[in-house]
Design a protein that fits this description.
Length: 273
């Protein structure tokens, strides 16, 4: 039987209780900048960690356009009892990502020793760079996890650096996986939850995160189990604004569809009093 992939729901801070709590608590991708600036957000995920969830602190580059400094990532990690920090990355640039990651590694080790597993994001401009970057990461002593970013648009050539399902198949078929490494998917791509049906055949993928079920549901758009998946232009999660309560059931249905695709039996935890 195919392995399940844990799905971490991304939602605005005001809706964590409604959509994000997990039963059982398994894994959460959290935004470092939110941890540091929002007391409610920070307390929610600290409580999830106490319930047994693995907390992964993201570096902020997707939301802010730049990664937070290493000291901020460490402070955020400690504030929510995180086990893992995603190192700084540069979109579609393997060498720049390696350079930023290596600098952060030294700074994090100086501040926190080995308190956190460190996760590198596998970026590249072409397949030669992708393979070179992957080899560098798995041979590094400081990397404990690798995250593969979502495929944002169709790529007819199915390049490893552009088509995530082609990349994961390539790694498995060629025996390139490293047992000590935790492998994660970052975000839902242009095929949304439908990609997860295929990805869960790889028993080594641990988790994926995504805001699409919440964003689409807030706009009244249902995610269908068998597709098709079409995502119109939508606001970023931090720009979503107030979500009408009449849309809550649809959002929860969308989350259930993604979890079904990922093979996860996890439920949304009941809101805390």
């Amino acid at each position: 039987m195919a392995k399940s992939i844990d799905f971490s729901v991304i939602a605005p801070p005001d809706y964590l209780d409604a959509f994000v709590g997990q039963d059982p608590a398994r894994v959460h991708h959290v935004a470092a900048q939110r941890v540091l600036s929002d007391e409610t957000y920070r307390a929610f995920f600290a409580h999830e960690a106490e319930r047994g969830a693995e907390i992964i602190v993201d570096n902020g580059v997707f939301d802010l356009g730049h990664a937070l400094p290493a000291a901020d990532l460490v402070n955020a990690g400690r504030a929510v009892g995180a086990r893992e920090i995603i190192l700084p990355d540069v979109m579609r640039d393997g060498p720049a990502t390696r350079k930023a990651s290596e600098q952060a590694v030294h700074e994090i080790h100086d501040l926190a020793g080995d308190d956190f597993r460190l996760c590198a994001v596998l970026h590249a401009a072409d397949d030669e760079e992708w393979l070179r970057t992957y080899d560098s990461l798995v041979s590094s002593d400081y990397i404990g996890a690798i995250a593969l970013p979502a495929s944002r648009r169709p790529d007819p050539a199915k390049l490893l650096c552009r088509t995530r399902w082609a990349a994961t198949r390539y790694l498995e078929e060629r025996g390139m996986l490293e047992e000590r490494i935790v492998y994660r998917l970052l975000g839902l791509g242009w095929t949304g939850h439908l990609e997860l049906v295929e990805q869960r055949e790889h028993e080594w993928i641990a988790s994926v995160d995504g805001a699409a079920p919440v964003i689409l549901g807030a706009r009244g758009i249902a995610m269908l189990p068998g597709g098709p998946y079409e995502k119109p232009s939508t606001p970023r999660i931090e720009e979503l604004g107030t979500i009408p309560e009449v849309r809550f059931d649809l959002i929860r249905q969308n989350i259930a569809v993604v979890r079904q695709a990922s093979g996860s039996s996890m439920q949304i935890a009941e809101a805390r009093p």
